[in-house]
Structures are given as structure tokens and as C-alpha cells.
Amino acid sequence: MQATSFPYQYPVKVVFHDLDAMRHVNNVVYLIYLESARIEFLNQMLGLETVESAPVILGDMYVRYHSPAVYPEELIVGLGISRFGTKSFDIVYQIDAETDGRTILTAKTTLVTFDYDQQRTIPIPAPFRATVEAFQQGWHFD
User: Fold this and answer.
1) pLDDT tens per residue across span 49-105
2) I want to staple 111 with a disulfide (CB 3.0 to 4.6 A). Which of 56, 69, 72, 105 is the partner?
3) CB-side neighbour CA atoms (13 Å) of 102
4) 11 Cβ contact list (under 8 Å, min separation 6)
5) pTM of the model as a whole
6) Residue 30: alpha-carbon gap to chain centroid
7) In terms of DSSP bridges, do strands 74-84 and 103-115 run parallel, antiparallel, or are they unpaired?
8) Domains of the chain, CATH where assigned
9) What does the alpha-carbon distance between residue 95 and residue 75 come to, in Å, rounded to a whole number?
């Protein structure tokens, strides 16, 4: 599977300050790439006016590194929601190098729907789920 086969794609250009002493993208920077893609996706799906109004909290993250990215590569972060539960959902990701298509990273996060005012989990809002399902048009992660 390529990042471009995911329902949502987010472009990233590697900039010099993303590099570590080994002259490739530092492992922590990839988490920022994932977060940026996730926030843009959620903004689009939820129609948020501010990031602070997102009713989610990160519950879990798994990352597997496959190949280093270097300056000045252009990357594609592909993502999609692979599972809906009652109060949580999983997002799967793949980052590929745009030039040669090699896989840089695969990842999965579990997000929990959360009411920050009441400091408790809440059921996934039905409109959010419906919007995602319509957007993903039957896409599923194998």
C-alpha cells in the first residue's frame, strides 16, 4: 500500500532543522509530521474553528521506522481511520518519499473522544463518524 492510497494525504517538505547529527530526519520529528497531518484531517472532518475545540485526546501511539528521510526530500503522509469503537478510534498512517515511493514510516494512533470541560470520555459524535465514513468512501486498511 502506498501513502497515496490512503483517503487523506498531507504533504511535508523536509527542512534542514528536522535533521539530527546523522543528517537524516530525527525520529521525534516524524511524530510532528503525524500530528500535523492528524490535526488537519480532524479539522476538515469536524469543521473545527480552533484546534482547542477538538473533542479528542491521544490515547496510544505505535510507530515503525522503515527508511530514513533526508533533506530536502518531499514526503507524503497518508492517513485514514481504520477502526471506530464506542469512545475511541484508530488512525493508521504511512509516510512515503515522494521521489521514489519508498516507505519511511508506518504508524497507528488511538484517539479517545473526550469532553475537556467535564474531564471525561464521551461517545464518538455520530456526525463525525458519518462525515469520515462518507469521506473515506468504504476505504479499509488491510
Assistant:
1) 777 778 999 999 999 999 999 999 999 999 999 999 999 999 999 999 999 999 999
2) 56
3) 10
4) 74, 75, 76, 77, 98
5) 0.94
6) 10
7) unpaired
8) 3-127 (3.10.129.10)
9) 7
